[in-house]
Structure formats: structure tokens, C-alpha cells
Amino acid sequence: MKELQELAEQLINGYSDHVARLTQELLDKGATPQTILNEGLVAGMTVVGERMRSGEMYLPEVLQSASAMHASLKILKPHLVRDGVESRGKILMGTVKGDMHDIGKNLVGIMLEGAGYEIVDLGLNVQAQKFVEAIQTHKPAILGLSAMLTTTMLHMKTTIDAITQAGVRANVKILVGGAPVSQKFADEVGADAYARDAVKAVDKVKELLAA
Ligand code: B12
User: How many angstroms from the chain centroid is the CA of residue 51?
Assistant: First the structure.
């Protein structure tokens, strides 16, 4: 459908108003929310992720695309619920203690939400104990931890240790990410997986839930 391609393009351009209008028009024409999500939004955000990775798109543009995705998801959400689209799984997310960076985490959350997962976002500067309590309350399948500083990334270990000590480590798969984080670091702190960006995060979540 021509409009789906246009939706993806306007999302890449970061035009929230156009994206919101096109989303409503597609719904009015009878496109299903899943089609709009997968063939419009996720297709567009995949390109954004790739361009970000290759350095073709910069942070302000990425944030505009993220806002545009939010504008569309706001319109789609009631339809997704009404159509009884089941969540593919619950994912708890947060930036670790001492760290005030949340743009990357939010982007990962949006991409995962776009891929059909339910996100419980604890925000930034989250204490280890708060993660433990949220695991007990929300019973997520996956916990996504974000850190952007070489100092705060150490709190990933503190957090995972607290989760282990509370006896709930076996209940949740832990995915870590953020600019200073690596696969080697993920292995060292006892995480189940590492993803370097939002596009890879969606792939990793699928792998973790299939395992
Ligand atoms: C924006 C920014 C800020 C903003 C944050 C605003 C916000 N709401 O997030 C503000 C101004 C608050 C800030 C503050 C500071 N910052 Co700053 N900041 C940045 C900057 C420029 C961009 C970060 C960003 O948003 N990138 C864009 C997003 C989309 O990318 P991303 O975060 O990497 O996320 C992607 C991946 O990492 C991954 N990912 C992220 N989280 C997760 C989670 C999971 C589960 C998974 C799977 C993947 C994943 O996927 C994301 C999407 O693809 C970076 C430099 C840079 N280019 O990275 C410095 C940077 C991170 N900051 C830095 C520093 C030093 C600071 C300060 C200490 C500065 C100061 N002296 O006060 C403070 C620290 C405050 C604190 N306690 O946290 C350093 C860190 C150095 C280091 N290695 O430790 C950097 C690298 C700049 C530099 N080159 O010096 N910062």
C-alpha cells in the first residue's frame, strides 16, 4: 500500500503531524493496526536505526522520529487493545543508579513496543532494590538495563547481584545495553544478553523468548 510506504518515510523524516494524520487515514481506510505497526512504523524505525548506526542520521533527527512514532502509537494503542492483539511478553526497563541518560533506553523501549511487547519503564537513576521490587510486582519475562557512563555501568552488576540475592534471578532474562557496554562486559556481570542498539535489542528479545 502506497500510504504505508509514505508513513514509513514521514516517520524517518520525523514529521509527527504527518505521521499522526497518515495513521488515522490508514485506519479509516481499513488497514489493520498490526499492518500499520509492522509495515509502516517498524519498517520506518528499522531504517532510522540503520541510518543511526551508519552515521547518516544524528541524535536530533532520531529524537524527532521517536516522537513521530509515539504520536502514531498513541492513535494505534486503543485499536490494538480493541482488536485483542496479545502482548508478546512484558519487558521491564530502566537506566541504572546514578545515570541520567534515558534517550537510548527510551528508543529501545519504543522499538520493542512497536514490535508488540508490553513495556514497564522505571525511568532513569533506578536503584537496584527498585528493580527487585518491580520484578516481584510486574513479573516481566525480560529486564532491560541501560547505562551510558563507564562509572554507572558498574551498577549493572550491583543490580544483577541484588536480583540474585532476592531469589528472583531465575524468573527473568536480563538484557543489557548502552554505549560503554559490550558483550564481554555483559558476560562478566552475569547478564543473559547484550545488544548494541535498538534494532539489535528487538532481535535479542525474540531470541531470549524463543530459548
Ligand atoms: C545526551 C547526553 C547527555 C544528556 C542526557 C539526556 C537524556 N535525557 O538522556 C545529559 C546532558 C543529561 C548528559 C549528562 C552527562 N553526560 Co552525557 N551524553 C549525552 C550524549 C551526547 C548522547 C547520549 C545519547 O542519548 N545518545 C543517543 C542514543 C540514541 O544512543 P545511546 O544512548 O547510546 O543508546 C543506544 C545504545 O547504546 C543502545 N542502548 C541504550 N540503552 C540500552 C538498553 C538496553 C537494554 C539495550 C539492549 C540497548 C541499549 O540502544 C540505544 C539505541 O540504539 C553522549 C555522547 C554520545 N554520543 O553518546 C554523552 C555521554 C554519554 N555523556 C557523558 C558524560 C561524561 C556526561 C556527564 C558526566 C557530563 C557532566 N560532566 O556532567 C553527565 C552525567 C550525568 C549522569 N549522572 O548521568 C560521556 C560519558 C563518558 C563515559 N564513557 O563515561 C559521553 C559519552 C560524552 C563524552 N564523549 O564524553 N549527557
Answer: 17
What pTM does this model have?
0.81
- Return d(Cα 26, Cα 7) in angstroms, integer: 9
Q: What is the rounded CA–CA span in Å between residue 88 and residue 116? A: 6
| CATH number (domain holding residue 43) | 1.10.1240.10
Whether residue 97 has its Cβ less than 6 Å from ligand 1: no
For residue 111, what are the CA distances in angstroms to 47, 94, 202? 12, 15, 7
108 and 48 inside one domain: no
3 lines ligand 1 (CB under 6 A): no
Supply the range of the domain harboring residue 7.
2-82
Question: From ligand 1's centre to the CA of 148, what distance in Å?
Answer: 5
Mean pLDDT for each 10-residue chunk of the chain (211 residues)?
94 97 96 89 89 91 90 84 69 97 85 86 98 98 97 98 98 97 98 93 95 77
